[in-house]
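Lab meeting notes turned into a lecture example. A postdoc, R.K., suggested we walk through two folding results consecutively so the class can see how the record format repeats. The first protein's sequence and structure tokens come next.
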Amino acid sequence: MEKNEIILTTNAFLVEEFEANPENIKPEANLKIVLDLDSLDYIDLVVVIENNFGFKVNPEDFQSIITFQDFYDYVGTRVKQKELV
């Protein structure tokens, strides 16, 4: 899966599942603030990621994810790891 495809897929489900304004989804923007995430929303986000990309998410991985770019990088790394198996 290419980087652009990951970004487009990710943005599409963030807009759909979290009712995010697509104009606010920018690589440098804060994921938690733009999506207005609380602790239950993170659980929903984990489920959506697992369903869309087919890998298990460790909730503690989110501690290092601040921006959308961090999120894209995380998903891209995990997708590549899955493809190598």
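The second example is placed directly after the first for contrast:
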Amino acid sequence: MGKNPKKILIIDDEAVFREAMTRALTSCGYRCVPEEDPAKGIMRLKREPYDLVLLDIMMDPVDGWDTLAHLRTFSNGRETPVIMASAKKLNIDEVIRYGEYLAGFVEKPFVDTEFCDAIDEFFDWYDPLIANANAARLQGVSPDICTSWIRVGRQIKAITQMLEYVNPSCIPDESMSEDECMDRRMAQVREILERKRRERDNIKILYPVFSI
């Protein structure tokens, strides 16, 4: 990580996982700030910048999805990448509802080295994306377009990754079977991804400086 290691905020109400993530990431060179209380984690992010937030889903009394929604209401929270970490499988409705607000998903429990590898791989992908946007800004591309470029790339990666961890079932209503329900939800996800890819491709066409 060099002289300026990445700073990661960990929000998890279970001490065993909070400590395990901190231990693993510290051992591979990251600076970790663990926080048990989601409200305190939110306040930390309001006060100071972080390179990444690792957020648990199953927390009480405020779960990870509600915490994510709150994070996205202020500037640091909107642009800081958030990776959800959970022992539960995702359901397809969570992908549809929250995928656009995330940067990825990691499954618990984990092997320390594999967890480090997952976070390393994220930054190996994300840092060039940020560098590309910064270069575009220096060449006169508007900050709003640069932010959109970062955001849409992050969204495509997150939604695609989340699909690897989806529980292959769906709660149907009386008009459809479980399989039909899942097929319909998957069609919604494919539509979201197609829309996001079109947005990314349109930015590249209008601003050839974007290359990642």
